[in-house]
Amino acid sequence: MTLARRAAARIPTEPLRMAIVVTVVLAVLASLTAGWFGISWYRAAHDESLDVAAARDVVLRESQQVAVNLNTLDYENVEPGLDRWIGASTGQLADEFRTNRESYADAITAARTKTEARVLDAAAAALDPTAGTARVLLIVDVTATREQGEPVVNRQRLQMEMSRTEQGWKASAIQPVGSG
Fewer CB in 10 Å around end: N or C, the chain? Predict the structure, then answer.
């Protein structure tokens, strides 16, 4: 027997072939899995709904601050509160606040009441990021404290129309929503 035949006889060919086949199959499966995850990641990263979700998060956050600004006042320091009203609004709503500023200041001062708002919940009922408009529903607790009295909490359900401006999202309309 030649040296080559003796060496070939010592190497078990069947287990070696099986190991090579298993290795190739595992490599192909790993490549397919990596490709599938790569395509899935690319699709998720370029999904337009991500932009809409990000816009929704921004409008919700900013609308909650607007609701607080529009419902928090101090009769002892009215002017900064009215400035916040105007700063948190746009369009006809801001015009109304500007036009009636003096009468609002007089009414707030005469009522001798401080109000503090806290948003309990908010949801975007409609959002058009392209047009820069949104409708947000909010539940707001407004705690009113008279000069000589105990705090009273008033729960409000509000619908705010929001418009995107250069300064961010602002209220363009606000109205109460019935409780049922």
Answer: C
Q: H or E segment at 17?
A: helix 13-45
Gap between the Cα atoms of 156 and 158, Å rounded: 6
Number of folded domains in the chain?
2
Structure tokens belonging to residue 156: 């409000």
- Over residues 114-129, mean pLDDT: 96
Q: CA-CA distances (angstroms) from residue 98 to 86, 89, 91, 106? A: 7, 10, 11, 14
Q: Do 144 and 113 form a contact (C-beta atoms < 8 A)? A: yes
Mean pLDDT of 19-46: 85
Distance spanning both ends of the chain, measured CA to CA: 99
The pLDDT of residue 172: 98
- Report pLDDT digits (tens) over 60-91: 999 999 999 999 999 999 999 999 999 999 99
Q: Write down the residue that tokens 């899995």 correspond to.
A: 33
Mean of pLDDT over the chain: 90
- What is the four-CA torsion angle of 93, 98, 99, 103, rounded to 10 degrees? 110
Give me the DSSP letters along 74-89.
ETTSHHHHHHHHHHTB
pLDDT score, position 166 = 95
Range of the domain at 66: 59-176
CB contact at 8 A, 143 and 120 = no
